[in-house]
Specification:
4-stranded mixed β-sheet, 2 domains, binds shikimate-3-phosphate, 435 residues, globular, alpha/beta, UDP-n-acetylglucosamine1-carboxyvinyl-transferase, Chain, 13 helices
Length: 435
C-alpha cells in the first residue's frame, strides 16, 4: 500500500465562532461594519437568516460584507420563528440579544438542536429579568425580554455560549454583568466587544461588562478556523510523508488545545508568521508527517480549548501507540450528537478498541486497517473526523452523511480530495449551505 504523502498549502475557511459574532455585533452596531472572509457555512447562514427576521440588514453572505447596523435598540419583533437550524451558537447568543428587547422571539431548530439543553441560558437570562419558556429543556423556546437587571453568574459548564448570551443580554439591556467560570472558555465575544468600544474586563476567573450606550462599527478579517484546520493537521500528522502549510489560521489560546495535545503525541506542528488580526492572534500552521504517534491523556482546564476537536483527537488516538484517555468532557454528550457515545460506537464498528467513560472516553490505537460504515447522526464534526481516518491508505471506511460537513466546513471533501491526491472521498457530494 503506497503511503499517503501530503504537500503544499491550503486555506481553511473562516472561523465559525467569530463569523457568528461578527454578524450579530455588526447588526447591533452604530454605522457600517465591514466583514471579510466570513464562513459561508449552514450554521452561519442560520445566524444571518435569524438576524434578518429581526430586521437587521444582513446582505447575502460573500467574501466582503458591508453591514449597516441597526444600533443596540434597533432590532424589531420577528413575525416568523427564528430558525436556528443545527446551530447552538445562533440559538444561545441570539437568545441573549433578544432578552434585551421588549418583544417575544420564538427559537426553533432541527431535531439535533431541539434536543440540546437550553436551561443553561434560560436560568441566567431569567435572573436578569427576561421570561424564557422551553419545550422540555430545549426548543422550541420563547424569549420575552425587556428591562433587565445586572447579574453575577457562575458559568458551571464553562460554556462560551452561556457566557456570551449573558454578555450580549447585558450589552443590549444596558446593564452590568459578571460571568465566572472555573475553566476558561473561548473569549471571542469579549475581544470583539472590546474592539467595538465596550468596557469588558477579565480578572481571575471573572469576565465583567459595564453598561454601554452604543457599539462602534468595526472592520474585521475573519481568521481561518483552527477547528477546521485541525482535520488537515491530523491528516498531515498521520501521513507517511510530506508537510502541509495552512496560513491565516486563528491561534487564540482558548482554541488551540488540540494542537498542544497532538504535539504531546509526537506530531510536528510548527507556527510561523504570527500576527494580530482584528484583535485575534493568527499565524501559519505547518504540520509535518511524523511517522508514528503515541497516546496521551487530556482532561481538566484544557478541555474547553479543544472541545470541538475531541472527536478528531479520538480518531487520531486510534492510530497512535498506547491508550489515550479523555476525561472531564461530559459536555460532549450534549453537542450536535452525544459525541462520547457516537465516537466510541463508530470506532468500535471500524474495529478499533474504544470505551465510554461517563465524562470522556478511552481509545487504544493500532495500525490494523479500519473497516466499516460510520453513522454520523448528522454531526458535522463526526463526518469530518472519520473522513480523515477514511483518507488513510489501508482503511476502508464509508460515511452515511458526508454532506453534513456543510454545517461548519463547506468544501471539506473537495479540499480533502485535493490534499490526498483525489481519493475516494472526492466522490462524496457537497451540499450547498442553504440546501
Ligand atoms: C462555541 C462554543 C462551544 C463550541 C461551539 C461553538 C461558541 O460550545 O462547542 O461549537 O462559538 O461560543 P459551548 O460554549 O457550549 O461549550
Amino acid at each position: 500500500m503506497a503511503p499517503l504523502i501530503v504537500g503544499g498549502e491550503i486555506r481553511v475557511p473562516g472561523d465559525k465562532s467569530i463569523s457568528h459574532r461578527a454578524l450579530m455585533l455588526a447588526a447591533l452596531a452604530t454605522g457600517e461594519s465591514r466583514v471579510r472572509g466570513i464562513l459561508g457555512s449552514a450554521d452561519v447562514h442560520s445566524t444571518a437568516g435569524a438576524l434578518r427576521a429581526l430586521g437587521a440588514a444582513v446582505p447575502t453572505l460573500g467574501n466582503e460584507l458591508r453591514i449597516v447596523g441597526a444600533g443596540l435598540h434597533g432590532l424589531r419583533a420577528p413575525d416568523i420563528p427564528l430558525d436556528c437550524g443545527n446551530s447552538g451558537t445562533t440559538t444561545r447568543l441570539l437568545a441573549g440579544i433578544c432578552a434585551g428587547y421588549p418583544f417575544a422571539s420564538q427559537f426553533i431548530g432541527d431535531a439535533s438542536l431541539s434536543r440540546r439543553p437550553m436551561r443553561r441560558i434560560a436560568q441566567p437570562l431569567e435572573s436578569m429579568g427576561a421570561e424564557v419558556s422551553l419545550t422540555g429543556s430545549g426548543l422550541p423556546m420563547t424569549v420575552r425580554g425587556g428591562t433587565l437587571r445586572s447579574v453575577d453568574w457562575e458559568n458551571e459548564k464553562s460554556s462560551a455560549q452561556v457566557k456570551s448570551a449573558i454578555l450580549l443580554a447585558a450589552l443590549v439591556g444596558g446593564v452590568a454583568a459578571t460571568v465566572r467560570e472555573r475553566e476558561r472558555s473561548r473569549d471571542h465575544t469579549e475581544r470583539m466587544l472590546r474592539s467595538s468600544g465596550v468596557a469588558v474586563t477579565t480578572q481571575g476567573d471573572a469576565v465583567s461588562i459595564s453598561p454601554a450606550e452604543s457599539l462602534s462599527a468595526f472592520d474585521i478579517d475573519v481568521p481561518g478556523d483552527p477547528s477546521s484546520a485541525a482535520f488537515f493537521a491530523a491528516l498531515a500528522a498521520l501521513a507517511g510523508g510530506g508537510s502541509l502549510r495552512m496560513p491565516g489560521v486563528g491561534l487564540n489560546p482558548t482554541r488551540t488545545g488540540f494542537y498542544d495535545a497532538v504535539r504531546r503525541m509526537g506530531a510536528d506542528v510548527a507556527i510561523t508568521d504570527e500576527q494580530e488580526q482584528g484583535g485575534e492572534p493568527v499565524g501559519t500552521l505547518v504540520v509535518t508527517a511524523s511517522g508514528s504517534l503515541r497516546a496521551t491523556t487530556v482532561g481538566g482546564a484544557v478541555i474547553p480549548t479543544m472541545i470541538d476537536e475531541l472527536p478528531l483527537l479520538a480518531c487520531v488516538a486510534a492510530r497512535a501507540e498506547g491508550t489515550t484517555e479523555i476525561t472531564g468532557a461530559a459536555e460532549l454528550r450534549v453537542k450536535e450528537s452525544d459525541r462520547i457515545a457516537t465516537v466510541v460506537g463508530n470506532l468500535r464498528t471500524l474495529g478499533a478498541e474504544a470505551e465510554e467513560l461517563p465524562d470522556g472516553l478511552r481509545v487504544t490505537g493500532s495500525d490494523r486497517p479500519l473497516r466499516g460504515h460510520v453513522i454520523t447522526h448528522g454531526d458535522h464534526r463526526l463526518a469530518m473526523a472519520f473522513g480523515i481516518l477514511a483518507a488513510l491508505p489501508g482503511n476502508e471506511i464509508t460515511i452515511d452523511d458526508p454532506e453534513c460537513a456543510v454545517v461548519s466546513f463547506p468544501g471539506f471533501w473537495a479540499l480533502l480530495a485535493e490534499t490526498t491526491g483525489g481519493s475516494r472521498e472526492a466522490r462524496h457530494r457537497e451540499r450547498s449551505p442553504r440546501a
